[in-house]
């Protein structure tokens, strides 16, 4: 797998996730844009395997996203005090950084991500590229 493929996946995740946040919350934070890029790059690596089914991809993706969200949340919200988000009022939250409802949301967000990753793979494997 080439660096250019991961870079393309990173940039897609960076911009798509930023757009999703802006449409839903009205704003985003630069660390969320970077996190979106890192996540899609990781998902791209996972979804390169021909044996990866949509359900497996969504399940693994939700775990990866939730773990990354917790890590970034600790840094952004607790260490740096940037207050990028706070799930304290959401049921089943852990330290206000992650919560079960959003983990389910990440599962479903991985559905289009799966197809984006497959599209990137197809584009990079086409003879015209």
List its traits.
129 residues, mainly alpha, two-stranded antiparallel ribbon, 72% helix, 3% strand
**CA-atom Rg in angstroms:** 15 Å
Order of helices and strands: HHHEEH
The gross shape turns out to be: globular
Low-confidence stretches: none
Separate helix tally: 4
Helix/strand-derived category reads mainly alpha
- How many discrete domains? 1
Helix content: over 70%
Q: What is the spatial order of strands in the main beta sheet? A: 1-2
| Proportion of strand residues | under 5%
Tell me how many strands there are: 2
What would your notes on this structure say?
The structure is a single chain. With 129 residues, this protein is mainly alpha-helical. The chain has helices at 3-25, 30-47, 54-79, 100-125; strands at residues 93-94, 98-99. The chain has a two-stranded antiparallel ribbon with strand order 1-2. α2 (30-47) packs antiparallel against α3 (54-79) and α3 (54-79) crosses α4 (100-125). The longest helix has 26 residues, at 54-79. The radius of gyration is 15 Å and the shape is globular. It starts with a helix and ends with a helix.
Short structural description:
Helix content is 72%, strand content 3%. The chain has 129 residues and is mainly alpha-helical. A hairpin with a 3-residue loop joins β1 and β2.
